[in-house]
Amino acid sequence: MSGSSPSSARIALDNITVEFPVYTARARSLRAALARQLGGALQRRENTVTVRALHQLSLRLEDGDRLALVGANGAGKTTLLRVIAGVYPPLAGRIEVSGKVASFTDLTLGMDFEATGWENIIYRCVFLGLSFAQARELAPSIAEFTELGEYLDVPVRTYSQGMVLRLAFAVSTSIHPDILVMDEMISAGDPQFADKAVRRVGELLERSRILVMASQVPAILKAYCTKALWLEHGEARLLGPVAEVLEQYEQSCRMPAAQP
Amino acid sequence: MNSPVPQSASAGWSLARALADGWAECAAGLANWRIAHLDGTAILRRRYARSALGQFWLTLSTGASIAALGAVWTILWKQPAHEIFPYIAVSMVLWGFMNTLVIEGANAFVNQAHTLSNQGLAVSTFIYSLLYKAVLVLLHDAVIIVLVLLVFQPPIGLDAWRFVPAFALTLVAGFCVSYLTAMLCARYRDVILLATTLMQLMFYVTPVLWRADFLPAQYRWIIEVNPFTAFLSILRDPLLGHPTTAHAWWYALAATAVLVLATLIAAGTVRRRLIYWI
After folding, report:
1. Interface predicted TM-score (ipTM)
2. Which helix (H) or strand (E) holds A38?
3. Is the Cβ pair A89, B35 closer than 8 Å?
4. Cβ-Cβ contacts under 8 Å, A105 against chain B
């Protein structure tokens, strides 16, 4: 890995709020925007609806923290992951992330399906922040892990979905991030490969200082995480030890009547 | 990891801050040069993977239209071939370059929506990759220019070195135009179509296929206010051995300065909102 890592990784969110503007076709149009300017203030904002994804959320994570994100669909889990990954700058509040962040929301990002498996090992490594020399150095061991053999010499577009995933998984898990952001546990397909994959993820987690993972599978969260944050409508409902939070969350799921 | 959008606490807008943020954004994109390189060469890699001639197939088609247009000018309108062929070849190739920067700039961010919403990357990375790709394509098309210049031998003098600073200036201005178009099109999607129409229009009012001196004097102002004319002139004249007017140079310099400022301010201002648009 190039560059020097900070001596410790840290995530500090203070009262962050994230809102998504939902544009109608009219709000997407420059012609309509100009017409509105001419038409006066009356209908100025009628075409924009905002959806609040995160509301005044505060969170502090230090070295060694393994945070699970739980909550219903649309509670803001993925948005929070993307805020930490630097995708969405919060519109209000403060954010401080120190350490190299690796975002695993799409493992194939940076790959070119027209290129060969070998080339894609390099492309994906570079996309994850390695230099070309570092990528070439790492390529043989990644190739070996994929067990794709001669397939690595042909374009990735000829691969089956499972093979693409295996390649993407092998490259993505070969890096050394400080902060690891995951939307659902990453894995790679078929049963005989699964054991190897689990071991490799374990090694990756050992190398990373902070993990933030969203998942709907309690067993996985309990196995990998120590803390959990329960999100509801973009707000923090409960933060604490993983077992405790999961228990309460599951309880509330069983009693759908207990809506606030 | 790769350089993400620099994060800072939100506060009110100020010019100094917008400029600083815009500069930081452009610097962060440049730091991602490896990604820009891979993205910028992707299309060319594909073209070469599918055929031995690769990008030169497109160069051939550009060459064919230049040959056809040159023939029309020579035969129908009795222009001397040794003048009109170099003029059209150089003009068409350079116009193609400028056209690409605007038209593809319109889609630069919209096309990368998936990547940008999954990885904290400086958006300017994809403006650099667009510029890089356009330069690589221009290098392919430059073969036509070289051939035509060798055949017709226009009176190129020592002044030809002026092409180098002219090209450097065009790169800076081109980066800014692409970036501004990309930001505008991310927010207002109807501008994507507008950009194509507008460039078609600019093609007709810019002396690409016709020469400035064909225009009656009372209409000269049309080309004098057109910035494309100025850039085309400072790039083209050194290659043809024509003198460049000081007006063209000053206009191109001033336009670039305004574009740089506008780009930095706009990039710094919309930086935190851009991702929500795409």
Report:
1. 0.84
2. helix A30-38
3. no
4. 118
Q: Can you tell me the distance from the alpha carbon of A24 to that of A26, in angstroms, rounded to the nearest whole number?
A: 5
Q: Is B197 on the interface with A (CB under 8 A)?
A: no
- Count each helix (H run) and each strand (E run) in chain A, helices first: 8, 9
Give the pairing type, strands A210-214 and A227-232: unpaired
**Rounded distance between C-alpha atoms, residue A132 and residue B81, angstroms:** 49
Q: Indicate if the pLDDT at residue B2 is higher than 70.
A: no
Q: Quick one: average pLDDT of B203-208?
A: 91
Task: Kindly list the residues from chain A whose CB atom is less than 8 angstroms away from the CB atom of residue B46.
Answer: 114
Confidence of residue A134 (pLDDT cuts 50, 70, 90): very high
Interface contact B276-A126, CB threshold 8 A: no
Q: How many angstroms from the chain centroid is the CA of residue B39?
A: 17
B117 vs A: CB within 8 A: yes
Nearest to B103 by CA among B8, B191, B7: B191
Average pLDDT over every residue of A70-89: 90
Given an 8 Å threshold on Cβ–Cβ distance, is A89 in contact with B272? yes
Question: Locate tokens 């220019």: which residue?
Answer: B145
What is residue B189's three-state secondary structure? coil
A123 and B117 within 8 Å at the Cβ level: the answer is no
Q: Do A127 and B191 touch (CB under 8 A)?
A: no
Q: Least CB-CB distance to B1: which of A93, A102, A115? A: A102
Taking the mean position of all CA atoms in its chain, how far away is CA A94? 20
Confidence bin at B4 (pLDDT 50/70/90): low
For B67-80, write each residue's pLDDT tens digit: 999 898 888 888 88
A98/chain B closest Cα distance in angstroms: 11
The torsion angles phi and psi of B175, rounded to 5 degrees, stand at -55, -45
